[in-house]
Every structure is written in C-alpha cells, then in structure tokens.
Amino acid sequence: MNLQVEGSFPRDGEALPRIFDLAETFLARAGLAGTHRFLVDFTLEELFTNTVKYNASGGGEIGIQLRLEEGELRISVIDSDADPFDLRVDAPRVDPDLPLAERRPGGLGIHLMKELADRIAYDYSGRVATIHLYKKLE
Predict the structure, then answer these.
(1) How many domains does the chain contain in total?
(2) Cβ of 93: how many Cβ atoms within 10 Å?
(3) Contacts of 60 (CB under 8 A, 6+ apart)
C-alpha cells in the first residue's frame, strides 16, 4: 500500500491539534493506528515545536508530509524559510548515561527521535529546510 497525506500549518504551537488530526487520518487510512502512533506523534511534535521555537521569525507555514511506501514510513517536516540546521550533526549531543546533574539542557527529544528512526535525511535549498525521518514497518 502506498499512501501520502500532507498539510501546511501556521508557525504556532496552537497548530499541534490539527497536526495530530492529520496524523490520525494517515494512521487510520494506513491501518497503523495503534502500532505506530507514538512514533508519528512524538516525531511530529518534536520537529514542529523545535521549528517554531528556533525559527519563530521564519516566514510562511510549516509543511507536514506523512508517507507510506513499500513498507516504509516517512515523516517529513518542511520549513519554507529557514537557516540551515541539520539536526543529524548540528543538534546538541546527549549522553543519556550521564547523571542528570551533569547533563547540558537541550537535545534529548532529538536524541530520542534519532533512536526511534531507522534513518534521518536532511535537504536544504533556497532557504527551504526539509527533515525526513524513515522507519521500516515490520
């Protein structure tokens, strides 16, 4: 089964309920409602809120795409007005084995997202930044 849903959302945390509605529609159509809900919701919330927080002055809306193709789930977040920031290399490193008192703030959500994904890709061109998270379905 191949399936894609997408939407554009204002650069505002108030858009999260609509983003979760889009995810629910996708998961139901794909027959993944219970199985992959945490991955999809967590990834969308983390990527969207980080985009809003760290690029609040960016122009335009933030695009969300959810795609199922050949047994692989792809979650994409597209920021149409962004400076380059490749979370694979630019996000703060997190050492989850350090005691809490020794950890620097920031980066834990991205770290967890990286652990959940099979791979992450990043594209940047003409101030458009796109993050793709991929997960093979079993």
Answers:
(1) 1
(2) 9
(3) 11, 80, 81
CATH of the domain at 89: 3.30.565.10
CA distances from 29 to 17, 26, 63 (A): 18, 5, 20
**What 3-state class would DSSP assign to 128?**
strand
Report the predicted TM-score, pTM, of the whole model to 2 decimal places: 0.88
Residue pair 11/58 in contact by the 8 Å Cβ criterion: yes
- For residue 121, the enclosing domain spans 3-136
| Sign of the Cα pseudo-torsion (112, 55, 75, 25, in order) | positive
* Residues 105/110/111/112 CA torsion (nearest 10 deg): 110
Q: What is the pLDDT along the chain (138 residues), one digit of tens a residue?
A: 899 999 999 999 999 999 999 999 999 999 987 778 999 999 999 999 999 988 988 889 999 999 999 999 999 999 999 989 887 777 667 666 667 666 666 666 777 888 889 999 999 999 999 999 999 987
Place of tokens 């999260």: 16
